[in-house]
Amino acid sequence: MFLKKLHLKNFRNYEDTSLEFSPGINVLLGQNAQGKTNLLESIYVLATARSHRTANDHELIRFGNNDADIMGFVHRRADDLPLELELGKRGKKARVNHLEQAKLSQYIGQLNVILFAPEDLSLVKGSPNGRRRFIDMEFGQIAPRYLHDLTSYRGVLKQRNRYLKLLSARKTNDRVYLDVLSEQLASFGGSIIAQRQKFLDDLEKYAQELHLSITQRQEKLSFEYDSKLKNIAGYSEQELQQLMYQQLQEQYEKEIFQGTTLIGPHRDDIKFLINDKNVQTYGSQGQQRTTALSVKLAEIDVMKEQTGEYPLLLLDDVLSELDGQRQTHLLKTIQNKVQTFLTAPAMNDVARNLIKEPKIFTIKNGNVAETTAKGELLLKTITFYPHGYK
């Protein structure tokens, strides 16, 4: 899978831009605040129908305009697939092969991406919320059922928390409805936990080998799903659903007193272990960064295993945050394997020596020019047609 063409209209600081990419490594060069990250963000939004930088879609629309448009031409297996996402005051419109999709869930998954930005290096030492978001965003792209269960869970959780506040304020005494909400929450929650555990098992398989390679086989990396439910080891999905319902009932008095739901996947976490020791607590900064790098690179193979195709890899100024050894391992891992978009102020020595035949773009004030490795301008015209490509 790779993105052949991209057209942006009124997206961030891009007024009307058309680009054609290499299936290998595409390097986006430019100083800060010129539009490198905006271009990467547009690809991420095209794939996931949401931004990794803001929850407000209006911020994605060029100042002074009412809507924005992202069009992409994706090569998958033996065919080419046009994708389009319109952003406006009335929400999003998504099209696959020129056909508007009734639900965004039918659109997500047509193009898979992995984003690796400097903040992802804090995946290990950062907050539990960041690690939960990591699973939800990455796994949600390739597992429609997980995305459905997660959306349903959040809806029931919101209702349940609202009702717990009513019980806490003694505005109602009806616990029958609380039982109904608890049963629904446990049904979706148990499913989410089971699916997360499976995803982490798959991710660990690839991350372990990557981590051993980076550390000259000195450190063994492993994952542990850290649930607020008690004693979940070895439980099936159905057993997890029953266990969660039971433990929710046991928490009623405490939850009513606090007015919120205290257990469930919305409060769970991931533990990263190196040689059986918690790297969040005992690991050095280097070990934490190596763990994050191993996890992000492992995603590439998990997505390939799950979907049959490699995803796109978006590297947003991440090389500047890695030392030479980790830069080398990253670039050697992705070379000739996955279409990559890499942003940087300039090509450093490691990238210049390791990246073979990159396609280079220079970005300034939202204007993109294709250049040679020596900085020479290449002139090329790409034509996009409304709701179609030629």
UniProtKB/TrEMBL annotation:
Signal peptide range in chain numbering: none
Listed name of the protein: DNA replication and repair protein RecF
The family this protein is said to belong to: Belongs to the RecF family.
GO terms classed as biological process: DNA replication; DNA synthesis involved in DNA repair; double-strand break repair; SOS response
Lineage top rank: taxon: Bacteria
UniProt keyword list: ATP-binding, Cytoplasm, DNA damage, DNA repair, DNA replication, DNA-binding, Nucleotide-binding, SOS response
CDD domains: ABC_RecF
Coiled coil spans: none
